[in-house]
Design brief:
This protein is of the alpha+beta class. The protein has five helices and seven strands, in the order αβααββαββαββ. It has helices at residues 2-11, 25-35, 37-42, 62-79, 134-145; strands at 22-24, 46-50, 57-59, 85-93, 96-103, 147-153, 159-165. The strands form two sheets. A five-stranded mixed β-sheet has the order 2-4-5-7-6. Helix 2 crosses helix 4 (62-79) and helix 4 packs antiparallel against helix 5 (134-145). The longest helix is centred in the middle third of the chain and has 18 residues, at 62-79.
Length: 182
C-alpha cells in the first residue's frame, strides 16, 4: 500500500514535472503482459496482447505509462475467475492512440463506475483483497497525460477499460459511466 500511495503522489497533477518523451504503448503493453504471464498461468487465464507491429507512440513518461498499464492488467488478472481471459489491445482510432483492456471477470456495476476511481474505494460486490488504489492511480496518470478513461461492458462478458490519448496532452480526464459501444 505504501508503494501505491507513493506512486499516486508522483502521478498527481501538482507533483514534479514528468518526462514528455514519446513512448510506444504497444511495446510497453507486450512487456507488461510478459511480466504477468506467471500470475495469469497460475489462474489458467488466457492473457494476451493485440498490438500492431509499428510503434503506437504517446507523449508521456514511460514509467507512468507502465504503471497505468500494469494496474489495469493486474486488476484484470486478479478479478477474472480461473480459466478466464484478459486482453490488452492497442491501436489508433481517428488518428489518436488508444489502449483497451477486456476481460471475462465480473465487471463493475454501472452505479459504481465513477466511484472506483476514488482512493480506497472497493466495489460492494467484491470479496477479493486489495487497497482500492489501483484505479485511482490510473486516473491520476491519465490526468497527467491528458487521456480519457472510459469503463464499459466487455465483448468478452466482463469489464472494458478504454484509455483514449489526446493529441494535445493537456491535463484533463473524462470518466464516463455509460456502456461503450466500440
Amino acid at each position: 500500500m505504501i508503494q501505491q500511495l507513493l506512486t499516486l503522489a508522483r502521478a498527481e497533477p501538482d507533483s514534479a514535472a514528468i518526462s514528455s518523451a514519446s513512448t510506444d504503448i504497444g511495446k510497453l503493453s507486450r512487456l507488461v503482459v510478459s511480466e504477468l504471464t506467471t500470475a495469469a498461468a497460475e489462474k489458467k487465464i488466457d492473457l494476451g496482447a493485440v498490438t500492431p507491429q509499428e510503434p503506437i507512440l504517446v507523449c508521456g513518461d514511460a514509467d507512468m505509462l507502465h504503471t497505468m498499464i500494469s494496474n489495469l492488467l493486474e486488476n484484470s488478472v486478479h478479478y477474472t475467475p480461473d480459466g478466464g481471459r484478459a486482453d490488452v489491445t492497442v491501436g489508433i482510432n481517428e488518428g489518436l492512440p488508444y489502449l483497451e483492456v477486456n476481460d471475462t471477470g465480473p465487471g463493475i456495476p454501472v452505479d459504481e463506475r465513477l466511484n472506483v476511481f476514488d482512493r480506497f474505494y472497493r466495489c460492494s460486490a467484491t470479496s477479493e483483497p486489495g487497497t482500492g488504489l489501483g484505479l485511482a492511480i490510473v486516473k491520476a496518470i491519465a490526468e497527467r497525460l491528458g487521456a480519457m478513461v472510459n469503463l464499459g461492458e466487455s465483448s468478452l462478458g466482463g469489464l472494458l477499460v478504454r484509455v483514449n490519448f489526446s493529441g494535445k496532452f493537456e491535463p484533463s480526464i473524462n470518466i464516463k459511466s455509460q456502456n461503450l459501444n466500440l
